[in-house]
Write a structure and sequence with these properties.
The strands form three sheets. Strands 4-5-8-6-7 form a five-stranded antiparallel β-sheet. A three-stranded parallel β-sheet has the order 1-3-2, with no helix packed on it. A three-stranded antiparallel β-sheet has the order 9-10-11. The longest helix has 17 residues. The chain contains twelve helices and eleven strands. Helix 5 runs antiparallel to helix 8. The N and C termini lie far apart (about 55 Å). Helices cover about 30% and strands about 20% of the residues. The chain is globular. This is Molybdopterin dehydrogenase.
Amino acid sequence: MKAFTYARAGSTADAVAADAMKIAGGTNLLDLMKLEVEVPRRLVDINRLPLAAIEPAGGGLRIGAVVRNSDLAADIRVRRDYAVLSKALLAGASGQLRNKATTGGNLCQRTRCGYFTDTAMPCNKREPGSGCQAIGGFNRIHAILGASDACIATYPGDMAVAMSALDAVVEIEGTAGSRSVAVRDFHRLPGNTPERDNVLEADDLITAVTLPAPVPGRHAYRKVRDRSSYAFALVSIAAVVEMDAGRIASASLAFGGLAHKPWHDPAIAEILIGKAPSKALFDKAADVLLAGAQGQGANDFKIPLARRTLHAVLAELTGETA
């Protein structure tokens, strides 16, 4: 690990003006610093800022940026009204890591591509223009949607997938002032700039995430992975589905493990709403999801896996068993 300076921010303004990388839980950043993938000259600790509350806001909830994942998953309001978020958080990492990881930091975690974390290998995310070794290399966990010739890495988190299904909003403070960005727009597809994982500028600070008012329906988070704990998703689905008189009244779905960002396509809900659940309908929804899917060889299995997982989640939430 290379030397760096460290300071504690006394206010949000201090953190924004610090010209330093922000640190809270450090569960991803410190690993990357040890590998010298991240080599910040300065760190500013934001743990003492008043950003650790979960409060009512506009009919929903406002979650401070340094709320720990374990506290968020255990909050009675989250468990009752936003169960998909609690389920997603509990599916991630380990208990010890959830006790340290924060809401803002979780959103900002970087991809877990082995070539990205190996500084001996070319990687466009780490060194733009150096190439993507995963294309034609080991790519079993990599993207089948939204990839580019520059990068096929996937976003590894669970929390943001659930927040995407819930249509949450990220609050950001920066040198240009305050702004809000939908979680669905917060992360970026790689395109020609895979080094940029999200829309944050260098001095920006996430201050909170706001959940909208709860919507009726059943919640599910299904995470398919190589082992039952401490593993990243090969495919994950966060879903909220409401039934009315045997038909799907509303549906919101987001997908993890498939792309450089949590994947949300409103056309999937449009296929489902107003229809009686059936295997044929679920197939149509999967066709929409996977219309642009492209495997890289070792990850080709993700395409049928995503289809089967979507079937299973929709069957669970709609009661379709035929």
